[in-house]
Amino acid sequence: MKSKKAELGVGVIVVAAIAIIVGLILFQAAASNVEQATQTVTGVSTLSQGQYTGVLNTPVELVGQELISVIAVTNRSSGAAIAAANYTIYECVRNSDNLKGICYKALGAGLPSASAPVNISYTYYPNGYIDDAGSRSIAGIIILLAAIAIALVLIPYLRYD
């Protein structure tokens, strides 16, 4: 007489394997999104005539959700710093998707050419950033609990009798 206590059906093993594979795929996607949503970014945005209209006082959408600080705005061809009176960088509602973003506007006060290509170095929170510190902590905990859940699905099948 066989003992059914130690037997596993093929269906149970297949279901467990599928659950683990799907769990790992979702874990990887969620972990990368949580990382993006909890980290600040320092970036350099290069704007050229072809990327905006060149008309003074016309906002240009930059990458990012929330502006932390502006490091420098320089003329791309000469590398010379552009005085702060010649531009403004501010948080705005983007026309492309109606979400909060960062905009640059050339004011032209004293610029040799308002449509000159510029490099903008700034620190920002990326799109989808979680503003609340408590929520950022919870997002990290969710990833840890997901890893534990995947391990708990696997543990019953690792017994060696």
Q: Could you please describe the fold and organization of this structure?
A:
This protein has 161 residues and is of the alpha+beta class. It has a domain at 38-125. It is 32% helix and 26% strand. It is built from 2 helices and 6 strands, in the order αββββββα. The chain has helices spanning 10-38, 133-154, and strands at residues 41-47, 60-62, 66-75, 87-93, 100-106, 118-125. The strands form 2 sheets. Strands 1-6-3 form a 3-stranded antiparallel sheet, with no helix packed on it. Helix 1 (10-38) runs antiparallel to helix 2 (133-154). The radius of gyration is 26 Å and the shape is rod-shaped. The two termini are 18 Å apart. Mean pLDDT is 75; it is low at 48-53.
Question: Over the alpha carbons, how many angstroms does the gyration radius reach?
Answer: 26 Å
Element order, helices and strands? Answer: HEEEEEEH
Number of strands: 6
Side by side, the strands of the main sheet go 1-6-3
How far from one another are the termini?
18 Å
Number of helices: 2
Oligomerization category of the chains in this entry: single chain
Structural class, from helix and strand content? Answer: alpha+beta
**Mean pLDDT across every amino acid position:** 75
Helix content: 25-40%
Major sheet description: 3 strands, antiparallel
The percentage of residues in β strands lies in: 25-35%
Unreliable spans are 48-53
The best one-word shape is rod-shaped
